[in-house]
């Protein structure tokens, strides 16, 4: 794993910046900047440093973000890793809303056709974690969000609120309006994220 301090200094060299330049952009002193990355930086501090450097959080967490395949959180510190151990829970990390939207659409369509309960869990690059599950017996989607500051939010989407009624339909036979429920879930995830992810 790459340390944030090492990456901070390497990115500064690449960009021709001093630690003082970065600290000034953050309204901090160079010593405070270094002590914050040597200690146990908060998620918001990591985001602030990345913003000051004008890089993504991924670039700050690893010099080779294109090789990172997962995120490890150890003692409150977040690292991207290229070879997670088999016994480490691995979450996909979304850097762009377009990728997130496509995967949510695919998950919702597959979930309502599946025979059993299904679930999806992932992390956004801005450090919000979400889980989306479908309960086939209750015909209900459940969205759980965990914000970067630790706050949580849960929402449910019932079939009868998002269905495409036809004259002959009953509560049992009516079909999901996949477009409507998918759009609502995507809107709820995106509205929970304070910093927009990059668009392609």
Descriptive overview:
With 200 residues, this protein is an alpha+beta fold. 38% of the residues lie in helices and 22% in strands. The protein contains 7 helices and 9 strands. It has helices at 4-15, 19-26, 30-38, 43-53, 57-61, 97-113, 178-191, and strands at 70-74, 77-81, 93-94, 118-124, 129-135, 140-146, 152-158, 163-164, 175-176. A 5-stranded mixed beta sheet has the order 3-4-5-6-7, with helices on one face. β1 (70-74) and β2 (77-81) form a beta hairpin. The model has no long low-confidence stretch (mean pLDDT 80).
Give keywords:
about 200 residues, alpha+beta, two-stranded antiparallel sheet, 7 helices, about 40% helix, elongated
Question: How much is the average pLDDT?
Answer: 80
Number of helices: 7
Uncertain runs are none
Rounded to the nearest angstrom, the radius of gyration is 20 Å
Largest sheet, spatial ordering of strands:
3-4-5-6-7
Assign an overall shape: elongated
The chain-level structural class is alpha+beta
């Amino acid at each position: 794993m790459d340390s944030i301090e090492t990456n901070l200094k390497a990115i500064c060299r690449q960009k021709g910046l001093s630690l003082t330049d970065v600290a000034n952009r953050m309204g901090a002193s160079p010593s405070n900047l270094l002590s914050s990355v040597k200690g146990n930086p908060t998620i918001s501090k990591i985001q602030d440093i990345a913003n000051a450097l004008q890089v993504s959080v991924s670039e700050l967490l690893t010099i080779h973000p294109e090789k990172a395949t997962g995120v490890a959180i150890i003692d409150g510190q977040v690292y991207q890793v290229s070879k997670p151990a088999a016994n480490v829970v691995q979450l996909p990390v979304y850097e762009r809303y377009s990728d997130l939207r496509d995967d949510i659409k695919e998950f919702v369509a597959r979930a309502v056709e599946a025979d059993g309960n299904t679930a999806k869990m992932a992390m956004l690059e801005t450090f919000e974690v979400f889980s989306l599950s479908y309960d086939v017996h209750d015909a209900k989607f459940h969205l759980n969000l965990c914000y970067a500051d630790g706050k949580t939010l849960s929402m449910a989407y019932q079939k009868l609120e998002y269905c495409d009624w036809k004259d002959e339909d009953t509560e049992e036979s009516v079909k999901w309006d996949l477009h409507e429920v998918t759009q609502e879930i995507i809107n709820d995830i995106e509205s929970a994220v304070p910093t927009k992810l990059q668009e392609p």
